[in-house]
Amino acid sequence: MKKILIVFMILFTTGLSFSFSLRERFNRITGRENTFQLDDATIIRGLKEALNIGTDNAVKNVHRQDGYFMNQAIKILLPPSLQKVERRLRSLGLGSYIDDLILKMNRGAEKAAIKAVRIFFRAITSMTFTDAKNILNGPDDAATRYFENRTRPALYAEFFPIIKSVLDEVGATKVYKFLVQRYNKLPFVKKIHYELDEWTTNKALDGLFHMLAKEELKIRSHAAFRVTRLLQQVFGSIRRR
Question: Where does residue 3 rank: exposed (0-12), middle (13-18), buried (19+ CB within 10 A)?
């Protein structure tokens, strides 16, 4: 009887081990390894850690000097009203004014960017588990879209006075008004209006979210950017679509 029991235990243990081995192989093949080990708390902690790292990197990238100005993907150019007539203004000898204005708009955005850290952090800490799951299983820019929906009005309120102050302080607003006035004095042209502060603020936010989307994609797509054990555990467990 004892021999039968021992044989049964060996077969049972071997079968159980084989079952776990098959599940591990299946998970590796489908990209779902370790998913069954993750509880809700681990998932949301991992996502929040990723978002803290991603937002911090995005803000640092744009807050430094030339963070906007030398990045062609997010560089702030003239407002549409002046873009349409830029060539004509340059032909009037106003090219240096235009270049100076573009530089100062970008400097304003770079200075304001640091204000995003606190607002992003607040959005992360208030995130629910449902939010986290939707982001984790969503498209490559799901977190970025979440932040934009939740934080853009607050970011605009923080960015606008800083950008306005910088543009006033460095003389950009004065230069812009000068260019608009010079253009409006030309015969047979449609008059344009001042819109510099609003335009610069919105383009600064567009650039910030663009950089955030890049950081998000790095963590989702490349194991090298999952710089902590928790990130490797959580993002390694989600099958890429």
Answer: exposed
Q: What percent of the chain has pLDDT over 70?
A: 76
pLDDT at res. 113: 95
> In this structure, which amino acid lies at residue 186?
L
CB atoms within 10 A of CB 29: 9
Q: Give the 3-state secondary structure of the chain.
A: CHHHHHHHHHHHHHHHHHHHHHHHHHHHHHCCCCHHHCCHHHHHHHHHHHHHHHHHHHHHHHHCCCCCCCCCCCCCCCCHHHHCCHHHHHHHHHHHHHHHHHHHHHHHHHHHHHHHHHHHHHHHHCCCHHHHHHHHCCCCCHHHHHHHHHHHHHHHHHHHHHHHHHHHHCCHHHHHHHHHHHHHCCCCCCCCCCCHHHHHHHHHHHHHHHHHHHHHHHHHHCHHHCCCHHHHHHHCCCCCC
Q: Which residue matches tokens 């098959």?
A: 22
Could you tell me the pTM of the whole model? 0.77
Per-residue pLDDT band at 111 (split at 50, 70, 90): very high
> Given pLDDT bands bounded at 50, 70 and 90, which one contains residue 5?
very low
With beta carbons less than 8 A apart as the criterion, state whether 175 and 196 touch. Answer: no
Residue 182 or 12, more confident: 182
